[in-house]
What we know:
The structure holds 2 protein chains of 2 kinds. Chain A contains 28 helices and 26 strands. Chain A is of the alpha+beta class. Chain A has a domain at 3-65. In chain A, the strands form 4 sheets. In chain A, strands 8-10-7-11-9-12-13 form a 7-stranded mixed beta sheet. In chain A, a hairpin with a 6-residue loop joins strand 14 (451-453) and strand 15. In chain A, helix 8 runs parallel beside helix 9 (157-177) and helix 21 packs parallel to helix 24. Chain B is α/β, with parallel strands linked by helices. Chain B has a single domain (3-224), classed as Rossmann fold (3-Layer(aba) Sandwich), CATH 3.40.50. Chain B has 5 helices and 11 strands; from the N terminus they run E-H-E-E-H-E-H-E-E-E-E-H-E-E-E-H. In chain B, the strands form 2 sheets. Chain B has a 9-stranded mixed beta sheet, sandwiched between helices. Chain B has a two-stranded antiparallel sheet with strand order 5-8. In chain B, helix 1 packs across helix 5 (210-224). Chain A: Residues 91-205, 456-574 form the PurM-like N-terminal domain. Chain A: Mg(2+) 1 binds at residues 110, 551. Chain A: Substrate binds at residues 111-114, 133, 257, 329-331, 553. Chain A: Its EC number is 6.3.5.3.
Amino acid sequence: MQPEQKTDSVMQRASEKEPTPEMIRDQELFREVGLSLEEFKMITHYLGRLPNWTELGIYSVMWSEHCSYKNSKPLLKRFPVDGPRVVQGPGEGAGALDIGDGQAVVFKIESHNHPSAVEPFQGAATGVGGIIRDVFSMGARPVALLNSLRFGQLHHPRVRYLFEQAVAGIAHYGNVIGIPTVGGEVEFDASYDGNPLVNAMCVGVLPQEELQKGVARGKGNPVIYVGASTGRDGIHGATFASEELGEDAEEKRPSVQVGDPFMEKLLLEACMELVKKNILIGIQDMGAAGLTSSSTEMAAKGESGMELDLDQVPQRETGMTPYEIMLSESQERMLLVVEDGREGEVQQVLDKWGLQSAVVGRVTADGRYRIRHRGNIVADIPVNTLVDDAPVQYRSGVEPAYYRENADVQPEKSLSQVDPVDALKRVLASPNVASKEWVYRQYDHMVRTSTAVRPGSDAAVVVLDGLDKALAMSTDGNSRYVYLDPREGGAVAVAEAARNVVCSGAQPLGITDCLNFGSPEKLEVFWQLEQAVDGMSEACRRLETPVVGGNVSLYNESKGTIHPSPIVGMVGLVENRRHITTQSFKRDGDRLFLLGETKAELGGSELQSVIEGKVAGRPPRVDLEVEAKLHQGILAAIRKGWVSSAHDCSNGGVAVTLAESTFGEGLGAEVDVTSPWDPIVFLFSESQSRAVLSIPPQHGDAFRQLLEEMGVPCAEIGRVTGDRLTVRVNGQQVIDTPVQDLRSIWEGAIPCEMNRSSTN
Amino acid sequence: MRFAVPVFPGSNCDQDCAKAVREVLERPADLVWYTEDSLDNYDAIILPGGFSYGDYLRTGALARFSPVMEAVAEAAEKGKLVLGICNGFQVLLEAGLLPGAMRVNDHLQFRCSIQTLQVENNSLPFTACYKQGEIIRLPIAHGEGNYYCDDQTLQELEDRGQIAFRYHGENPNGSVAGIAGIVNRRGNVLGLMPHPERAIHDWMGSRDGARLFRSMLQYWEGMYGAA
């Protein structure tokens, strides 16, 4: 075929319903699908002619922020991505780290914020489904799910609806597919009133030789479509996710996909069988931008081309146009490339699991991405222009006024007169601190019978079959800190996630991150993004936890901009199951030690939020050298078998750390400290790099000596005893309250809020 | 003693059940695909938890038509031990191997927690290693565990000692008379919502489930010798 002829048939394809290439140009219809004039000109240049409607759609999703990271790419390059354990860094479905014994841990976090804002149940559910596919498309068996959620204030009925439905959606998908949801975190803040955040993380394990890649190689090899048939759901989901949530967000409801976890369970098991049979050349899930992104990315990574015949794509609706088929985000679909002639072997496995499949195309060698529909070529695009040559926006940020104004705020002064007991009760009742059992009891966190530390402790721990090792995992991010100082807050997110993993007895290995921010087109938002990435990068370098994958969610704006919310998903390795440690006090008489240094740091604290209703000042600072020493000290003590419990200090300071440690077993504590600070500051300051450990009496002295030798500030502050929490600061009794009273406040807070709209 | 664990599309506790048998009893347990129509080679059957057929239509309603369910009914008829856990219990109800039906939890939410139970009858093949009236802790994880039967059936269950386990303290789903698990008249088919296979080591939070499997082995060895 001559090039001119191809072009002609492409041009002819424009159906009566669809705009012609000339209309797209003259009426600037490219703007409707989120492309700028400049980008439209680039497309015309790459094609050497005007694009038709289908081609325009393909470019628009591939060049959306969601798929191309066009706004964040220059920043993402700042993350450290290498390390001795890195088996797979960013760029594939998920990252992978070596955990010894020939095994690797595969994990990734991803956002589903926009869909969850309009249709919370399906939005959240399909977020979980998508991240699970990312992990098993690497060949890994998913072993755990986590999440990180942000909602507005619970007194709004709409917020309660979003919270209730998003949690139910997450629960539904994970429970049905049978992967335990072992951990997560939830924060509430007015900035999320109209724009909740739903980030889902999946962790899998595999023998390293079974690691798969999303590539299409070998001219003539078949491209096989597996799973659910293609419908009109989710068309332009990726573009939707790359815009602000406007007044018309409700109209975007058709952009939200509908999930079927049963189908995904079948798909998961079938793909695991195919991996074990070692017949796959490439495998990738059809996530955001569906068939388009999976097929073009596979072709680009394989440095090949691809030809697809849309008439072969299983469809659940009649009369779908090429545009609709290419851009559908119907769930539970995978794309496979296998060696020519082995289709039968694949078919056998898929038949067993009752899955439909079809050979929808062939790998080519000419670098073109060619789509046929009813005998016509409806798109013909150089593959690399969709993936590698996607436009990059080099933006710069400006320090916002609020950051300068906050330099003079001194919350320590205004808060010092608050009554400590009243403050503790109010902080424990804050939904940010309160027990999240209402959430996690809806998640099956025990299926697969590997969960050694269930939700509610610092990090979840999942044991590995046939090995003495275990994986610890945690999601973290304090959006208030990031708002007040994105650089510091970004570093704290990494440090705290690592600290949580350490307190569970694990060596932190690496992170996946989800950057949830407002519009990068706003100078102040871009400043937040840039600063946060720098802070995170610095912490990842010092704590030797490379970034092996992640996701960016920008344009989180509805009535205003959300707090900048980078979320860190950390995975750590427990070398020996005996090292698994939890936060609850275990034995009456154990000695209590506070590690780290307490400073007057109440900016962005929970106390400031509940007492003064504001987020102001400078957040706690983290010294990464000090943080690293703390981790080494805690791990050394745990490995010696000296630690009964370990709990890091975060939201709500030492007061909340102590209270939460009493709740598990109902064991109280007597604490008596001398401090350079007022009781309120000592109790509620959120200084970083601190943890409270309980140590059996006979090991206390050796413990203190070890920690001092390792350069970790270590103060003995009391002992575990009785059923009351009593605290004396500088000789003054400031708290003396039954554990049960505190626990019922902490346990009851969220159920009470939610009772307004639910029966339980 | 050889165990079969039938696997339906959507089962997700099949591996856990087989693992529990191997770890607690050191006896073989095979996963058996739902299309098998004979279980003659097995001495006991465990119908696992999960969401067979996605729980579409009703929980367990589609799985009961699987070929393997005829073999399960046959095994029950022969007096072999049949244990249905969670979705397995729901399948047994739909198949008519146990009386009653399952409804959505009264609070309408899925519930996963470690629950306190009372052993109501320790003279069953599944409960002999427990003390009568003993309080044990087993995990639950279900959205539809709200067991229902009519008054007459309930009376019969009570009178014949067919209630094996009852929730102690909080009833997590609203089930009739706090029922957590029941057996058939003959006592060789047990269905229960809690997951004994998730409570066989201390690190799991409880190991009270291990004795349920031990009871099964003890019963079988009593019948057929320690072969």
